[in-house]
Specification:
327 residues, 14% helix, six-stranded antiparallel beta sheet, single chain, mainly beta, five-stranded antiparallel beta sheet, 6 helices
Amino acid sequence: MSCVAVAVAGLWTSPDAPRAIDAPALGNPALLERWLSRLDDETRLALCKEKRLATQVLLDTPVGILERHRDGHGNDWCRVVVPSQRSSLDERGYPGWIPAAQLVEAEGCPADAESVVVMAPIAWLQGLPQERSLKLSFLTRLKLADPVPEVADRRASRVWVETSLGRGWLPRDSVQLPGEGLPATAATLETLGRRFDGLRYLWAGNSSFGYDCSGLVHSLFAAIGMRLPRDAHDQVETGLPVALDERRGGDLLFFEKPDDAGRLVVDHVALYLGDDRMLHAPTNNARIECRRLSGSRYETQLCAVRRFLDPGDPGTAIPAGTIPAGT
C-alpha cells in the first residue's frame, strides 16, 4: 500500500505545474510553512488562475498509484488517486500528481477502525526515529500503536502511534481515539470551524495550514464522520435539497457565478450557522470568516442549499447525505 510520507502533500495537476517558488512544498520533508511564507498575492492567485494545485493530502493517507513519470529535471512523480477524497473526475478518488519522494510503501497507513485522529487545529508528532518531530494538520489519521483495550487510562498525556515515518507520540488532548467521536450537529460544526477564523485562504487547500472553500467544509464534515465529495460542484450533487428560505444551521450553502463561457456554475460553498450567519473561506488572498449573508454579494449568488444533518434526530446524519441529491 502506498501512502503519503509528509505532513501535507500537494496534489498537482501535472508534473510541470509547480514553479520554482513551489520547491519547498515538493521535498521530503515538505516545508509547507516556508512555501506559504514565500507566496505573495500574485503567486497565490496563480495557483488558481493557472490551475496548478488540485488538492492536498495528509500524512499516511492511502493513495493508489496509476503511473510513474520522470520530469525534465530528473524528478520522479506519481499519478495517483486519493480514495478518501471523492470526485467526479475519477470514481476511484481524487486524481493528480505527487512527487515520488513524498510517497512510501508502508504498513503504517491507518486502518479506520484503529485510527487516532488529530482534532486540534495543529498537533506535533514527536518521538520519531532520529528524534524528529513533525507539525501535523487537523484530521491527520494515524494508526494506534497499541490495541485499543490497552489504552485504558484516557487521562494519559501521550498517545503512541505507528506511522510511515516510524513510531511516535501525540499529545492526548490533541487527538480522538478509536471509539470516541463528536455528535453530528450544527453546533459541533460551528465549534470546529470557528477555530479557523482568520486562517488565510489557499486555493486547493485541504489542511489547517490553509483551506479553500470546499476543503474547509469537506474537512469539517469528515470530523463528524461524513465523507462528502472534495469539490463544491460535486458536493452540491449530494445531500437533501432544501428551499433557499428554509435553510438552518448545519446546512451547506452553494453559490454560482458565470464561467468563462458565460454559463452559471457552482463555484463556492459555505457552512450556514443559523441566524443569517455563514462560515466560509471566501476567495484568494482573503481569510476564513464568519459573516452575515443578508446584504452581501453572496445573497444574490445563492443558488442551492443542501442538508446533511437530521433535524428530527439530533446528532445523526441524513443517509441521503451520501447519495446524489434528488434521488
